[in-house]
Amino acid sequence: SHDYHFGLEDHEGISELFDCD
Amino acid sequence: PPQTPIRAAMTSIQQLRGDLISTGDQPSTNLATYFKNCTVDPTQDVVKRLETLGQTFSQRFGQAVGPRCVILGKQRFTLGVRLYYKVMEAMLESEEKRLSVQNFSKLLNDSTFHTSLLACALEVVMATYGGSSFKAGGYSHGGGGGDTAETDVCFPWILDVFSLAAFDFYKVIESFIKADPTLSKDIVKHLETCENLIMERIAWRTGSPLFELLKQEHEGGAAEQVETPAS
């Protein structure tokens, strides 16, 4: 596929990034 | 036949349109259920926001590319909305699996989240149509721009159109790529270049929310962190 490096850990998602878990 | 830049672009556009053909202009039943499960149903705000941003987008697209191209801007916005809904649904499914919750009221009522997600979807559409070029004006990354009108609507144009902080746009990129495994290698590369531009330059411009966050982090973290300078 592609070479994008995923930096987020498994326990992190969009909810945490917008401060609403 | 040998691959040419035009043929590659046509293939990418056909692929994008094909992927979104089954996705409607409205939220799917599944996505609508996520909206309904919220403590505060975001449906009306989502529709209203899309109307406002759609008008702004078409107007600014017409200004940048030419008044005769307003219809093209509208078509691209429609494709962007389809991608926005599709990726939002995939993100929520993934978050439901990860967090074992179905109520995403806070996230789905966050205007910045929606604007960032829509901006990312539109950036994917615009990059598919215009190739992975970047707006002129000192950016050293990207494919050298070119001199077509398309370069006027390349990243970071969308941030200006939606008055969106680069730092907020940055937050959705990785989740967006994870949520849409059908994105082409070129588009992923394009988003990665956007990410690098933000990290290296745009997020550090005057007025960026990053400075306030760093300040808060520094103030809040000072008492907790007892690490020595060496570590």
Structure description:
The complex is a heterodimer of chains A (21) and B (231). Chain A is built from one helix and no strands. Chain A is an all-alpha fold and 21 residues long. The N and C termini of chain A lie far apart (30 Å). The longest helix of chain A has 4 residues, at 14-17. With 231 residues, chain B is an all-alpha fold. Chain B has ten helices and no strands. Chain B has helices at 5-19, 29-36, 43-65, 70-99, 105-108, 111-130, 157-161, 166-179, 185-200, 209-224.
Descriptive key words:
heterodimer, A: 21 residues, mainly alpha, elongated, B: 231 residues
How many distinct beta strands of chain B? Answer: 0
- In what range is the share of β-strand residues of chain B? under 5%
Largest interface, Cβ cutoff 8 Å: A-B, 15 and 24 residues
Report the order of strands and helices of chain A.
H
Instruction: Pick out the low-confidence regions of chain A.
Output: none
What is the gist of this entry?
Chain A is 19% helix and 0% strand. Chain A has 21 residues and is mainly α.
What is this structure's SSE topology?
The complex is a heterodimer of chains A (about 20) and B (about 230).
Chain A (H helix, E strand, L loop, with lengths): L13 H4 L4
Chain B lengths: L4 H15 L9 H8 L6 H23 L4 H30 L5 H4 L2 H20 L26 H5 L4 H14 L5 H16 L8 H16 L7
Helix pairs in contact in B: 1-6, 3-4, 4-6, 4-8, 6-8, 8-9
